[in-house]
Amino acid sequence: GSIWKIAGNDFSESIRFVLRDKPVIGKALLIICGINLFLSAMIIVALPYLVTEVLDFDAAQANRLYGFSQGALAAGGLSGGICAGIFSRKLSIEKSGNLITACALCVFPMGAALLLFSSEMASYLVITLCCFIIMVCSTIFTVQMMSFIQRETPQNLIGKVIAVILTISMCSQPLGNALYGVLFQISKGFEYAVVLFSGTASLIIALCARKVFKKLSAA
């Protein structure tokens, strides 16, 4: 058959497996999409906007501090990957919802700093530190999820299923970017409200995730 027919068959086979044969993977996919939509997109949009536009730094200092914050995100990703390897035996998929909860809870100090702190540098340090912790926890969660999906998927479907999961979850990212671009635009002067909205939505998703993954231990 044509390449399009083969791709369509592979896609439909993977979707059928995720939704019917292993619905827990489908639920995990919805959780990942929700986190990408409400949390990851907020970090991507908010970090440069807050550091360079909202916090009262001069242009040169803002650019320099934004570079440091990007370095903190990268360091968080590396640290999360290292921690996932070191503590692999102590981490279980049943408790992975706690990692999402930790990510969501780290958003609230960012909003509180924007609302309450008079020091721009103090707000910047809180935002950067929280983003670092979020990256650590989210990276560990990503490693856990990839391992879980590979464990639960038949050998002949692993590549197809992972490709579908990555494709669908990545589609939520630009939607979230557009959402927060609009929200920050209409909430000028009240950016903390957008950040707190992100934290609230992420916390709701995290609580749902904990219920989903806890059921695995009872299964």
Which structural class do the helices and strands define? mainly alpha
Order of helices and strands: HHHHHHH
**Total count of helical runs of at least 4 residues:** 7
- Rg (C-alpha, Å): 19 Å
* Gap from first CA to last CA: 40 Å
General description of the model:
With 219 residues, the protein is an all-alpha fold. The protein is 86% helix and 0% strand. It has helices spanning 3-21, 23-54, 59-86, 97-116, 120-152, 158-186, 191-218. The radius of gyration is 19 Å and the shape is globular. The model has no long low-confidence stretch (mean pLDDT 89).
Secondary structure layout plus pairing:
Elements: H1 3-21, H2 23-54, H3 59-86, H4 97-116, H5 120-152, H6 158-186, H7 191-218
Helix pairs in contact: 1-2, 2-3, 2-5, 2-6, 2-7, 3-5, 4-5, 4-7
What's the gist of this structure?
By secondary structure, the chain is an all-alpha fold. It has helices spanning 3-21, 23-54, 59-86, 97-116, 120-152, 158-186, 191-218.
Brief descriptors of the model:
mainly alpha, 7 helices, 219 residues, single chain
